[in-house]
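Moderator note: this is an archived Q&A kept for reference. The question asked for a predicted structure of one protein chain; the sequence and the answer are reproduced below.
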Amino acid sequence: MSRYTPVPPDNFGGIPEEHSRYETSRAVIFPVPLERTTSLQPGARNGPSAILAASRGMELYDEELETEPYKEIGIHTLPPIDTMDGGLGEVITELYTAAVGLLDDNKFPVGLGGEHALTPPLVSAVARKYKSLNVLHIGAHAELRHEYQGYAASPACTMRRVVETCPAVQVGIRSISAEEARALPQLQTKIYWAKDIARTPLKSWIAKVLDDLGATIYLTIDLGGFDPSIMPATGTPEPGGLAWHEVTSLLRAVADHKKIVGFDVVGLLPHPGGLSSDLLAAKLVYKCLGYVFCKA
């Protein structure tokens, strides 16, 4: 039989086995196609597969870090979890258990969503290991409702569940209900509104965010935090969002000054022909890993 060149592996980045085996990888990609309580547009359950597919088309050399991060990190990709079997509570329990297993194996967990309801069980698992955890949330919506449409686990309640576990800082917010605004002073979170960020020098507001964060960070990025002009593929787009370099500058500063112990990227709703959004999400994941593991 004649030899031929095989296609790249069907994993994040198309990374060869040498740098993607579970045993030797420090970071583990955890696809979570969760979509059980979507309130506006369906399709977020296709987000993880779209991110993985787009990642195999991106360059693996990072021009900012001047290295190929995957070679220094080792990035393994798990199969997607079945989020449609059983009740939502059962799925959340499975997510928590899976994350605990990764952490017990000393892996750095990277969740790919899916709707934002996947974040609280991941935060709870990380908080079990890191007792003084803070959460940095980049997003458009405050997500601080006590419940929404009868669901305490709705994405509209994600950060309310998170701040019941540990303190949070929320960046890029520009959508909040009257109920949430009334509850805000009693909740352990600090919001950096998009309208204020737009009027403040980059280094100034990033320095304030760093001051408000503790030393150990779980990062959750809802892609709706970006402005729809560069990230239209979300279920609930909001005008007036963040730019690419605003977000990446914040992430690099946090990675440089704090200990990031896990993160998730959620909220991609793939559009036909909308490859730019899928690529943005994939490159964001890779950038975050590079910032965490490949510090100058």
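Archived answer notes: The chain has a mean pLDDT of 94.
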